[in-house]
Specification:
The protein starts with 9 loop residues before the first helix and ends in a 17-residue tail after the last strand. It has a seven-stranded mixed β-sheet with strand order 13-14-15-12-11-17-18, with helices on both faces. Strands 8-7-6-9-10-20 form a six-stranded mixed β-sheet, sandwiched between helices. It is globular, with a radius of gyration of 25 Å. The chain contains 16 helices and 21 strands. The protein has two domains: 232 residues, 3-Layer(aba) Sandwich (Aldehyde Dehydrogenase, Chain A, domain 1); 183 residues, Aldehyde Dehydrogenase, Chain A, domain 2. The protein is 38% helix and 20% strand. β17, α15 and β18 form a beta-alpha-beta unit. α3 packs across α7 and α4 crosses α5. The protein is α/β, with parallel strands linked by helices. Bound molecules: nicotinamide-adenine-dinucleotide. The site of nicotinamide-adenine-dinucleotide (NAD) has 30 residues, from α8 and α9.
């Protein structure tokens, strides 16, 4: 079933190490090694030396050295380099797709049609956006001075990324930072470094100078905390779980850093009784199973108004049974394994505990046969879970949808908001007033109407509440990666200004 010819041979490709510092690959010096495991087979496919604090120091020094040169390039020069970057990524699209599928277990059609094209589009978007960094217009606000605003890069950005979309997360962190003239040290998750390393290599090939984009692959508590606390890092940008985000916030705050946090999610999917049932059922299955449910915006809590509830539950269960679980490198596969056996066991634990208080309507099992070695889990639907049970309140991060009935519109919206998270949500209705009310009243950084999941480079992505603050993608991300300077010119040319009376008496 597995065809090794189509997989990606990581050990040879990254023989020089999983660090990328000052334009070159390097081996980590922590004294500890780590194995990237193909979750479809359980086989180790790449063993490398983890970064320690010394490697983080070297990467930060490279980024600091590169900052004066890169930050003084013109927006047009940065834009040209980033257009070349997008072209290099497009040339290597298939290699990126195979490496991402190997390390994450993502179906190859997902990496070829979503992760990689999305990253190329993001790169092209920020190539254009680099030329549109704006401050407010100048003016004589005091009457005696001309004021204007400069938008400036911050310096060295230290970024930390999760394993669920390693290439896209690298892109979301690196692109707005360097478009604005910063330099960056990115720490990918230990499980999934391959495409972040390839992304940094592609930047060099595009002519982006050495040291502008650096990668350190190390453990969170070791390399990660050292990067966040580093005195030469001006800003921390973190994407990951809310628990780790709190720890990162403590360290960043203690060193007075700019902070951008993209944290967990538990997106509601609210179906009103006038919704197109077929659209809602298809949207719920696709929106909950994308990336094997390891998506911070995935549909996880379906609230369905009572008249449609039974039909929705049986429609979703039937459709989930048609999803083809299998080898990520088979183009007919719809759903690959989870990222690791540990993540699969964690997901299975949520489902097993739910059996005592809710109804497992579909899935809830580990596939056997050819798939038994991998970290696979069947698409799962849990019905009738109480609102305050753990499957409704906690991030499961697997192919599991929970469905809960509601009666009035007020109740549907109240339940959608009754959770600490606020990253994304959707509402399903043909009534424009109902749908519009949902967009106003659901507390989340993104609300879709009659769809769930699509993202676009031009629009911001980021959370409300415990899902964090700050925006990725779009020109809104420049609010995170730039600082604003007020410049004030005196226009009077007089030595004794009027306001000096406050100091020099009434003269
Ligand atoms: P995680 O929080 O366990 O790890 C994220 C990163 O933080 C990894 O690189 C890890 O090595 C590092 N890390 C761990 N401990 C650290 C520490 N003490 N100091 C510094 N760094 C540390 O998350 P994960 O399991 O890799 O990813 C899944 C989580 O990411 C989910 O909660 C998901 O919702 C979230 N996520 C959010 C978004 C978003 O845009 N809001 C996007 C993708 C993923």
């Amino acid at each position: 079933m597995h065809n090794p010819g189509h997989r990606f041979l990581a050990q040879d490709r990254f023989a020089d190490g999983a660090q990328f510092i000052a334009g070159r690959p390097a081996k980590g010096t922590s004294g500890q090694s780590h194995a990237v495991v193909d979750p479809a087979t359980g086989d180790a496919v790449y063993t490398y030396e983890l970064a320690g604090p010394g490697d983080v120091d070297a990467a930060v020094a490279a980024a600091r050295d590169a900052f004066p040169g890169w930050s003084s390039t013109t927006p047009g020069e940065r834009s040209d380099a980033m257009h070349r970057f997008a072209a290099v990524l497009a040339d290597r699209a298939d290699e990126f797709a195979r490496a991402e599928s190997l390390q994450c277990g993502k179906p190859i059609k997902l990496t070829r049609e979503f992760d990689v094209p999305g990253t190329i589009d993001n790169t092209a978007f920020f190539a254009g956006a680099a030329r549109h960094l704006q401050g407010q217009s100048a003016g004589e606000y005091s009457g005696d001075h001309t004021s204007y605003v400069r938008r400036e890069p911050i310096g060295v950005v230290g970024s930390i990324a999760p394993w669920n979309y390693p290439l896209q997360m690298a892109a979301w962190k690196v692109l707005p930072a360097i478009a604005a003239g910063n330099t960056i040290v990115l720490k990918p998750a230990e499980l999934t470094p391959l495409t972040s390393l390839m992304f940094a290599e592609a930047a060099i090939e595009a002519g982006i100078p050495d040291g502008v984009v650096n990668i350190v692959t190390g453990a969170g508590r070791d390399a990660g905390e050292h990067l966040v606390g580093h005195p030469d890092v001006a800003m921390t940008s973190f994407t990951g779980s809310t628990g780790v985000g709190k720890r990162v916030a403590e360290i960043a705050t203690a060193t007075v850093k700019r902070l951008h946090l993209e944290l967990g999610g538990k997106a509601p999917f609210v179906v009103f009784d006038d919704a197109d049932l077929e659209a809602a059922v298809h949207g719920a299955v696709a929106g909950s199973l994308i990336n094997t449910g390891q998506d911070c915006t995935a549909a996880t809590r379906a609230y369905v108004q009572r008249p449609l509830y039974d039909a929705f539950v049986s429609g979703v269960a039937d459709l989930m049974d048609t999803v083809r679980v299998g080898d990520p490198f088979d183009s007919a596969t719809d759903l690959g394994p989870l990222v690791s056996h540990a993540q699969r066991d964690r997901v299975a634990g949520f489902v097993e505990r739910a059996r005592s208080y809710a109804r497992v309507v579909a899935g809830g099992t580990v596939p056997g046969g050819d798939l038994a070695r991998g970290a696979y889990y069947r698409p799962t639907l849990i019905a009738d879970a109480p609102q305050h049970s753990e499957v409704v309140q906690s991030e499961i991060f697997g192919p599991v949808l929970v469905v809960v009935p509601f009666d009035s519109d007020d109740e549907g919206i109240r339940l959608a908001n009754d959770i600490p998270y606020g990253l994304a949500a959707s509402a399903w209705s043909r009534d424009v007033y109902r749908a519009n009310r949902a967009t106003r009243e659901i507390k989340a950084g993104c609300v879709w109407i009659n769809d769930h999941i699509p993202i676009i480079s031009e629009m911001p992505h980021g959370g409300y509440k415990a899902s964090g603050f700050g925006k990725d993608m779009s020109t809104y991300s420049f609010e995170e990666y730039t600082q604003i300077k007020h410049v004030m010119f005196d226009n009077t040319a007089v030595a004794r200004k009027d306001w000096h009376r406050t100091i020099f008496g009434d003269r």
